[in-house]
Amino acid sequence: MDAAQWDERYRASAGGVWAAEPPAVVREITASLHPGTAIDVATGDGRTALWLAARGWTTTGVDFSAEALALAVARPGGDAVTWVRGDVTTWEPPASADLVVSCYLHLSDSAAAVARMAEWVAPGGVLVVVGHDVDNIAAGGHGPSDPAILYTPALLRGAVDERFHVARCGQLVRTSADAELRGGHAAHAVDTLLHAVRVR
Questions:
Q1: Which residue of 12, 98, 112, 120 sits 20 to 30 Å from the alpha carbon of 41, by its own alpha carbon?
Q2: Does CATH place domain 3-198 in 3.40.50.1970?
Q3: pTM of the predicted model, to two decimals?
Q4: What is the per-residue pLDDT across 178-191, written as a single tens digit (0 to 9) for each?
């Protein structure tokens, strides 16, 4: 979907598309980190950026949908985040960040997008990427049905270079208790996680 299609989806939503909190694995990883600067890539209506800001992170939320950002800024705590309209394939942050996180961003060249995000991580910083795994199609989980834009552990691991230590990279099974969408979803879903630390 392009920006215009996402704008329409957000306009049609009743108060937002995504669940109120980030995925459980994102909360788990970031809860153990000392707050610093953070970039939430493809922030959508802001759930991850707002969660991080509420925990002391100086957060920038980036998305190419103006409608998504309008919902995000109107949410409680929305004034604590710097919201930027930008496309991950072309946007560049003004400075590197201690944390770069991306949830459910799927593009025709996702590996290149993740490699770009990795460049934004400061030495000692953390990259967290989570999205639908290619096996999610067979599992019947919500999400894209085009395997060409879905993740695999090999794809995400290959998107970072020797400057990164891969702390965790693999499949996750997510249940309706850890919903991606507002209102939850009955079926479980298969995701892929990359948690990498930039060591130099």
A1: 12
A2: no
A3: 0.90
A4: 666 556 555 678 99
